[in-house]
Here is the input.
Amino acid sequence: MMEMKMIDTTFARSTYEVTVDGSFLYEAALGIAVITYPEIHPSLERDGRYWKKVKEGLSEELKTELAYAQEHNTWKVLLDLIAESGCRKSDSFAAYVEEIGADELKERAFPYLGVQWEEKTKRAVRGDDDAVQKLLNAVDGHLFFPGLIRYLAEVDGDELRRHILKLTERWFREVMDHTLDETEQILNRDLEAKRAMQDRLDPEAFVTWALGGEDGYPPEPSVTNVLLVPQVSYRPWVIQAERPGTKVFFYPVADESLLEADDVYKPPMMLVQKYKALGDETRLRIVKHLSESELSLKELTELLGMGKTTVHHHLRMLRSAKIVRTGEKGYRLADNFPGTEAGELEGYLAWKER
Here is the structure.
């Protein structure tokens, strides 16, 4: 048999370009995402008590829109529309949403699944049941995409517009306006620090550093740009999203970006998260089990004799503290754990005022 020979005329992209950018609009959308996702509150720096207090001060009109957002996951729509619009101010974003046609608004609101699904998205917007089902099959098992796709396939475009405009207008008026200056200063401090470091590292090393020492993001052929967006509301989580040709990471601002001046008595957030996560008998049992082997959620529930929801809650706490990570078969300990905890504590105790 004749050996097949090949001449490769393709170009293998070695890496991607990195853009660091942020805005008050993104922070607003993420705040709405958090307050409508109470299950994650225990693992956040701003925990359930903070968000409960925020909610208690809201008007009934805004609470109604938030309940609607929680039911249909329209915070995702809001994030995608902000990215699509390129707007940085609430008034320009409102004008953008007002000007889009109803069907086009729905199309832009659909979650991006890849180039191969764009035509089916257009058909789904116009009521094609077969296209909707194929999209649902593609996202089967996703946490919130199935419900969002069903909603967007059925909702009237003008009703979606009304909701987005009312939700953002009320959220800015009742929540964001009170912290506008402070939040913008935090975001700007972090953007300045990240951009200063960007020139000193190659793109992949920079993304790994910016995301807090995780594995980072290896290049893939369909992605030419990585967008890094600082955020406060979801600390310590990194939120990942995707746009055509772009991978987006909403990363938690660094501890030092939160303070105008050094406060030597404020412990680093990640140090608090680690010890908080370890200060529980069940979570220590999980760490012990995972130190021996990688385990699935089902295996852990059987070993601990607990319900899946309870074990998942403990795993979420351990993951937020970067002690546990997801592996090929389930969950495993992070590569650098145990490792730096004692040194981080010693550094905090030894830190002196400048």
Q: What stands out?
A: The domain at 269-350 is CATH 1.10.10.10 (Arc Repressor Mutant, subunit A).
